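Re: Re: token formats

Sure, here are both.
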Amino acid sequence: MNHITGRAICPLESRSQFLVCLLVLFVIWGSCVRANAKEASNGAEQALIITIPLTNGKSGSEDEVQRLFKLEDELKKAIEHSHVGEYDGNEIGEGTFTMYAYGPSTDKLFDVAQPILAKYRLPPGSRAAKRYGKPGAREEHVPIGNGRQTK
């Protein structure tokens, strides 16, 4: 209402048109938000799972595990810095050291991890599983033990 004349500034017809336009914009915005959320959740389903056999018993020697923790720290920093996903942690036991990372592209995760893995002398049988979706989805297994360079 215009306080000077006591009349409505916008006729009712203009208000209803404005409200309809506002409603349409809200519906379009909501659709975009849902689509982006769905895309983000689907993208986060890919995984890079790095499995390294331990050479000394089910849980490895102290030196071996400390060296793998150092590798893990480098890997975590590189993934965070590159914004290709997130590092989720490790499992140690049953003769393996396994590291988990997730993101929208397992190939991009591997591209970030590969140069770091190549710097370490990893035992034979070390491998990366590139999983292209939720558990049960297609996986590509890549051997990563090189034995040439040490750190």
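Second one below.
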Amino acid sequence: MRDEHETLAGRRATRVVDERRELMLESVARAVHGRGRPHDLSAEGLEEAGERINNLERAYFVREGFTREEDHLRGRIAEEPVPEGPFKGERIDPQKFEKMLDDYYRLRGWDIETGIPTRKRLEKLDLKDVADDLERLGKLPIE
């Protein structure tokens, strides 16, 4: 009886894992397909889906009031030296961090001053309605 129970438990656990994978693939497919695009589960299609998801997430946080300021490090990680390891004693240089943030925003296609996705970037990802919403809220940067 124990073997049968373990087998059933194993099947249930396998089903849970399968469901997670199915939901992940469905989410990716929706992100790719969501705006009239065909399902594209190639490496490029998945990268585009990730880019769309990243920009949608950022737009959501912008809508809720997040700005470049929320991307700054705070607390011990920003103020204290590294306590051990190969970087022991080193600190984060605020000027280098600002440059890194500028570079990150530039690579993302976001406004460097605000950290907000630009209309051009959102429209390239077929997210014009998201750009329109940010503009209506007065949060879309002027290009």
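Residues 2-33 form the longest helix (32 residues). The chain is about 60% helix and 0% strand.
- S.
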